[in-house]
Amino acid sequence: MAKLAYSPNEKAREIVRRMIDLKDELNVAVNTLDNRTTVVDCGVRAGGGIKAGLLFAEICMGGLGNCTVQPVSAGDLCVPGVTVYVDNPSVGCMGCQYAGWAVKADRYFAMGSGPARIKSGAEELMQTLGYEDGATCAVLALEAGKLPSVEAANYIAGRCGVAGEDLYLVVARTASIVGSLQIAARVVETGLHKLTELGFDVKKVLSGFGTSPLAPVADGDLKAIGATNDCILYGGRVWYTVDCDDGDIENILDRIPSNSSRDYGKPFFELFQEYKDFYAIDPMLFSPAEVFLNNVHSGRLFRAGEVNGSLLNGIFGKAD
Which of 164, 218, 267, 270 is the most exposed place for a label (fewest CB within 10 A)? Predict the structure, then answer.
C-alpha cells in the first residue's frame, strides 16, 4: 500500500464543514445521529442547489478537483453545464469519486463515493490502486432516496475504522439539483473508469478536464438516472494529459468513447426499460462522448468519438 502524502478525507471534511457553516445559504440540512455521525442532507428532504452541488462534487473527489458551472452546447441549444478539472485523477476520481461502494446495511441502500472508500479499502479497485489515507476521519457521499440510519452509519464507520463522531455523510437523491450536478461532474471519472476497463494504467494520467451538460431534474430517480447518464454518454467531453507509450493509446483509442458500445444511440432510460436490468446494459457504453488524450511523452494529441447532437436535442428540446 502507498500512503498518500495528503489526506483526501481531511480535505473533504473541510468542505463539509464549510457546507455546515453555510447550511442556510446552501439550502441543506444538518443532522447528528445518535452515534454522533454528521449527516448533511443536500437533496433528499432538503432542496439543495447549484452551489451545494458543486461542493458535493468536490467532496466526492476528496478535495482534489474543482467544479464550475458554465454554458455548454447540447445539440442546437446552449444549456447549463458542469466543468471539472482534477490533478492526480487516479486518486481524486478513481480512489475517491467513483461510486464503487454499494452500501447495504439495516435495509438501507446507497451508492457510496468519496474518500471514505480509501479508508474502507474493501473494493477490488482499492486493492489495485493501493492507496492509504492515514486520517482519523472518513467522508462518504451517498446517492440515495433516504437519509441513513444510525445502524447504516455504524456499519460505514466500522468498515472505515473510525469512530461515529469522525464520520461525515453527505446525501442527495438522483432526482435533485445536487444529484444532477454531482453526476455531471463525474464526466472525467467516467472516462477514467473506461480506461481502467480497457487495461490502461490510470496512474499514467497526469490530469483530467471535462465538461458535461447539466441534466434537467426529472420527476423520479429512475428517469433522473437516465437523463444524467445521457448527458455524459452523448454530451460529455474530456481531455486527459497522459505520460505513456503512444502504443498504449493507439491500441484502445477507438474503444474509449461511448459510441464504441453496441448499446450506443438509445436514451439510457429506454435501454433500462428494454433490459430490465442495469447490469445487462453493455458496460462499454459508460464513457464520455468525445475523448482527447495529450501524451506528454511524445507530444501527440489523440481524439476519438463525438458529441451526439440529435440525441441531446431530444433531451433538451422538449421544453413545454
Answer: 270
* Contact by Cβ (8 Å): 164, 157: yes
Q: What is the pTM of this model?
A: 0.96
Report pLDDT for 130. Answer: 92
Query: Taken in order 276, 278, 283, 289, is the CA torsion positive or negative?
Result: positive
- Which helix (H) or strand (E) covers residue 80, if one does? strand 77-87
Counting as low any pLDDT under 50, the low residues of the chain are: none
Looking at residue 320, its pLDDT comes to: 54
Give the three cell numbers for residue 188: 472525467
Handedness of CA 211, 213, 214, 218 (dihedral sign): negative
Q: What amino acid is encoded at 224 in this protein?
A: A
Give the Cα separation of 147 and 42 in Å (integer): 10
Domain ranges for the chain, please list them.
2-316
Which cell numbers in the block locate residue 63? 478535495
Q: What is the pLDDT of residue 106?
A: 84
Nearest-5° Cα angle at 248, 245 to 253 = 130
Q: Which class is domain 2-316?
A: alpha beta
Q: Please name which of 318, 152, 145, 289 lies closest in space to residue 225, comparing C-alpha atoms.
A: 145
pLDDT in tens, 239-259: 999 999 999 999 999 999 999
Q: Supply the pLDDT for residue 155.
A: 97
Chain center to CA of 86:
12
Distances (CA, A) of 92 to 42, 95, 129: 21, 6, 12
